[in-house]
Amino acid sequence: METFGYWKTMNKQMRFSLISARLAVAALAAATWGLNAGTTSAQSGGDRIPVTLSDPSRPARVKVGMVNGGITVKGYEGKEVVVEARVRGHENSRNEGGPKRLAISTTGLSVEEENNEVNINTESYMHAIDVTVSVPVHTSLKLRAVNDGDIVVTGVDGELDVDDINGAVTLNNVSGSVVAHALNGHVYATLTRVEPQKAMAFSSLNGDIDVTFPADLKANVSIRSDRGMFSAILMCGLQRRRCRSQ
After folding, report:
1. Nearest-CA neighbor of 202 among 177, 236, 219?
2. Sign of CA dihedral 114, 117, 119, 120
3. Looking at the DSSP assignment, which residues form a beta bridge with residue 234?
4. Chain-wide mean pLDDT for the chain?
5. What's the CA gap between 209 and 5, in Å, rounded?
6. Which pTM value belongs to this model?
7. CB neighbours (10 Å) of residue 103?
């Protein structure tokens, strides 16, 4: 079984591979791979790839697509995009009265970077994989998840495009502009700043929507519910007044 990760820039492409036949060989190869290439396999079923941006002085754009599994993105005061992936429920087992069975699987994590755009892929079509991405604060995101996982974003400033089919979307202390959709889950968002020239949208078919805007928000707000009730309250200091809705 082969596990690989690579990043690509305009002038060069780097690819790292690890082929494991036995557990002892795999452990040694993983250690060497991590030291030489900057890519580590933290534990069985987990991988980590730090990615250097082409121009760290400019905002990044990160894209993640998952078939099975969740996505967590955290903003931090750094210049690299750090990607971690782990197979969910990856545990060793022991047959009754027999030797311990070592489960060896792969996340299939692959990362490409070109002109500050980072594309992240895994083998999530085979099993549930959870991806955690640490990004510079000023980063735009395009996140997609289908089954068995939520999307959580914290502390990111940029254009956020988030869609989860069978999970929830939670955006904590984000800023910029947001388009968020959860078909069968809730959408929770707290914005600390909004981009005044950008339209935003929050939608769900079978879940709740709870969005908190800054108190100084100036915007035209349109709200529609096909099934269920809604309430819109604008917080302005210690005063509350209801927004017009249609």
Report:
1. 177
2. positive
3. 241
4. 79
5. 37
6. 0.75
7. 12
CA atoms of 72 and 63, how far apart (whole Å)? 12
Higher pLDDT, 26 or 171: 171
Please give the angle made by the CA atoms of 85, 89 and 90, to the nearest 5 degrees. Answer: 70
Backbone angles phi, psi at 245, to 5 degrees: -135, 155
What is the tens place of the pLDDT at every residue in 58-92? 999 999 999 999 999 999 999 999 999 999 875 55
Alpha-carbon span 189 to 137, nearest angstrom:
17
- Can you tell me the distance from the alpha carbon of 54 to that of 60, in angstroms, rounded to the nearest whole number? 9
Quote the CA–CA distance of 128 and 48 in Å, as a whole number.
17
* The two three-digit tokens of residue 28, written as one number: 């040694």
Give dist(CA 139, CA 116) in Å, integer. Answer: 10
**Alpha carbons 162 and 64: distance in angstroms, whole number:** 10
What six digits make up the tokens of 56? 């760290």
User: What are the helix (H) ranges across the chain?
Assistant: 23-37
Pairing between β-strand 169-182 and β-strand 157-164 as defined by DSSP bridges:
parallel
